[in-house]
Here is the input.
Amino acid sequence: MKVLLVSPKAKENEAMKNGGGFRIAQMSLGQVAACLPPDAEIQLADELIAPAPLDTDADLIGITVMTEVVERAYELGDEYRRRGKTVIMGGIHPTLLPLEAKLHCDAVVAGEAEGQIDRLVDDWRRGQLRPIYQNLAPVDLAGLPWPRRDLFDRRHYQTVNCLQLSRGCPNRCSFCVVPVIHGHRYRIRPLDDVLAEIDSLQSKEIFFVDDNFAADKKYAKEFCRRLATRDKLICGQLSAATLNDGEMLGWLRKAGAVGFFVGFESISQATLDAVGKRSKATDYRDGIKRMHDNGMTMIGAFVFGLDTDGPDVFERTIEFVDSSEIDIVQFTLLVPFPGTPIYQQLKDENRLTHPAWWLESAWNLVPYQPLHFTREELRSQWIRALTEVYRLPKAFKRTAWQLPGRPWLTSWITLKLNLAYRAGLSF
Ligand code: B12
Ligand code: SF4
Here is the structure.
């Protein structure tokens, strides 16, 4: 049995280009590969490296689909089926909209692959593939198979050492798909499993793909305590509220933390409250300092276009970025993902100008009517704000304030990411 697993590349869009330059192995495919029967001959095709081969002798084609790659994924699904292949789709978007995805493939795996792939392969071998496969309950993370990192060509990636401690997030931010996909339960893996997996890795660095790395602080601190003796370099994603916990940051430092992606989302408390974010904007400056005191850099992420964002939101955020010593900045426009409370709200209020925007290359065209801006104003002010924070002197300044007393690696990563984000601006 030959299987080709494909990660499609998004049609050009500005959000994708932001942060370009750092390529991380597509863990979703590594994990699906680990769920396939041991006799499967598996080939991976990551379109960030090269277009997926259409001429293939694979019997089964598996495509992983995030919303921003939908158009390409459906194009590939249609083409492989035209060539007589059996196509399976899975990942975030088919989980949110399985019936839409089914139009372009033979079967959809909605949700986690573990627990479904064996059934799917058995059904396929008997010629009785069902349209949708879905677990009735969340997968027990004890004994989770380890992703097939051996299938990735390491030369093409900054790292193939992506690792998961947990799935889900206890929070319910209204723009986020994670609670929609995983519910509000935060599931953790047994630490012995995780550490055994870490000990099997061939290099020092680890990229944690958890949505909210330290959501269970007791667990995260114990993990860091045990990791501290292993001489690793780690990064991942933290919720802004975690920056208030100096002890947690201290443990992260001991565990080898270099930097984290931090979802600040907004400097306006009204916006944080409106989206259900459990953080306090007034804590942000101290939190940033605490990260620096612990030798870490950060990508601070902000979202624009929520109803509580008034016309001055961009100026105020630029001022905050300039004065808070934040290291690397990510500004995104609100993306109303299907299935999220925000999507439903905009739909109920008849404000979606492109209800199926993901099929129309409308990613950054603001597919809804904002409250305090025209769609064009919101987009042009976002472009202006990004251009402003990524002016070369500002990008260098963000790196320079890292220098005194900070680890060289942190400064190097900060510089490299600032330049990568800047290079990704295509306006
Ligand atoms: C790590 C990560 C990244 C990394 C690495 C991405 C990569 N190349 O792997 C980086 C930082 C590069 C990144 C970038 C982006 N990301 Co991201 N990312 C994540 C994160 C935190 C974890 C993904 C992961 O590896 N999970 C671990 C794997 C094992 O789980 P999984 O993907 O769910 O796969 C399981 C099932 O879905 C299923 N499955 C998945 N694929 C398939 C395929 C088949 C055939 C089958 C059968 C089953 C199956 O089986 C797997 C095992 O159970 C998720 C959050 C999340 N919870 O998904 C966001 C997330 C996927 N990202 C998101 C976004 C928006 C982006 C960006 C567009 C951000 C931006 N503005 O630029 C870019 C786009 C990048 C791209 N197109 O490649 C959104 C996607 C929303 C959506 N509706 O699609 C998410 C959900 C975050 C969020 N909270 O909104 N991301
Ligand atoms: S804290 Fe992050 S992962 Fe959790 S619901 Fe909010 S945005 Fe999503």
